[in-house]
Amino acid sequence: MSPPRTVVIVGGGISGLATAFALREQAAAAGLSVRCIVLEAGSSWGGKIVTHRIGELTTEAGPDSFLSQKPAGLELITKLGLTDQLINTNETGKKAFVLSGGRLHELPEGLVTFVPKDLGPFLRSGLLSWPALLRMGLDVVIPRGGSQGDESVASFFRRRFGTQAFDRVLEPLMAGIYAGDAEQMSLKATFPRFLELERQYGSVIRGMMAVKKQAAPRAPGGLKRTMFVSLKNGLSDLVTALTARLTQQGVELRLGCQVAALRVRSHRLGRWMYDLILNDGSALSCESLVLATPAYVSAELLRPLTPIAGGLLEMIPYASTATIAMAYPAADVAGAVEGFGFIVPRKEGRDLIAATWTSLKWPHRAPSDQVLIRCYAGGVGREAILQLDDQSLIARVRAELSTVCGITAEPKYVEVNRWWKAMPQYTIGHLDRLAQLDAALSRYGGLVLTGAGYRGVGIPDCIRDGALAAGRVVRYLAGPREA
């Protein structure tokens, strides 16, 4: 039997861990013996997936849920035996709001996550003026866009639906997902479904209606999932289960292990060895290398190999954000919180991006006599607030809550979580740059990039991309030993 092939994965966030899991699965199916090592520079696994449990409170420092409509997340949950821990959002109080003109307006449910479903609720929301509603309706007669090039999210939605609909609804939803500026974001890379609807049906609204008619009914007795799902005791349970399974499978998990430099040498025609110089001065060699690190970290490692790839990776900008969790006695905020929370358009000029009434949205997050709130700040063009110290930042957020919803009580618990350069921005031309990146790295067989910086920022996106990265590794290692 041939000795196992060594694969090193750099980065222990969800992307790196999912890559390792898929690698073991796919290598076994291919009859390939693989030694897999995952290196993480930090002191814990999971990257931005961080759950805090304080008494009866459960807070999420990073993401608090993931989309059920993207199957990779649910599939991994099933494989890890966590299906019984999966929870839907609460059945009651599903409303969400958007701040407009200093007042909260109910947000049409069909657009909560930019998933084309139904525009009817717009007619009942009072959020848009009648001229703006009529302008939205013109989408059915406005011709398709003529250009085949990339277009900004802002340009597309203004062109199809008008300025008011974009400013008051579409922009804050996009900012809530990407913490970005719609004027800079690539439609092809972020919301390609809308572009597909325009091209196929000539109108986004007509496309929505057609898709709704074609949707297959749910099987009788099938378990219905809400658009967002989470785990009963927090998303960190996903990381715990994943690392436990990887350890059982013989994957070597090393924390506090930073890669200082990368060297490449050819050990036979068309085949490479990747030598990693670690922060303790030791070295580690492998036949295949997966970089599951932020693009700017990967850029530093790859620049000596290919300056072109390093430059392209540096062109992926990252935004900084913060989450601020606060717990209040329920009696102190009675009447001030309704639904699941609100989002804030950029034009409102507020410090907040959004606020979630966490304990109303999710079961098991706080005892019944407390209300847990999570606020979001920062993002592209709004990062100055992150320079404040914690107390000043909390004071600004509390002032916002007081103005917007009348919450003036003193929170009984507060935590601030800052995420520096944590949210990749898919700016115009992003997909073209990824194609150029692939070309720049094409000569280095077995070298693969994965992570939120490339093809999706959500948890299911990262899991799916990790599986694709694993597939590339297995195909390379199982291929001919000589070019």
TrEMBL record:
- Please name the pathway: Porphyrin-containing compound metabolism; protoheme biosynthesis
The record lists the membrane-crossing segments as none
EC number in record: 1.3.3.15
Q: Where is the Amine oxidase domain?
A: 14-473
Primary localisation category: cytoplasm
Question: InterPro entries recorded for this chain?
Answer: Amino_oxidase, FAD/NAD-bd_sf, Protoporphyrinogen_oxidase, Zeta_carotene_desat/Oxidored
Q: Which reaction does it catalyse?
A: coproporphyrinogen III + 3 O2 = coproporphyrin III + 3 H2O2
List, alphabetically, the Pfam families matched. Amino_oxidase (PF01593)
Compartments reported by the entry: Cytoplasm
What this protein is reported to do is described as: Involved in coproporphyrin-dependent heme b biosynthesis. Catalyzes the oxidation of coproporphyrinogen III to coproporphyrin III.
**Protein name in UniProt:** Coproporphyrinogen III oxidase
Q: Which organism is it from?
A: Nitrospira moscoviensis
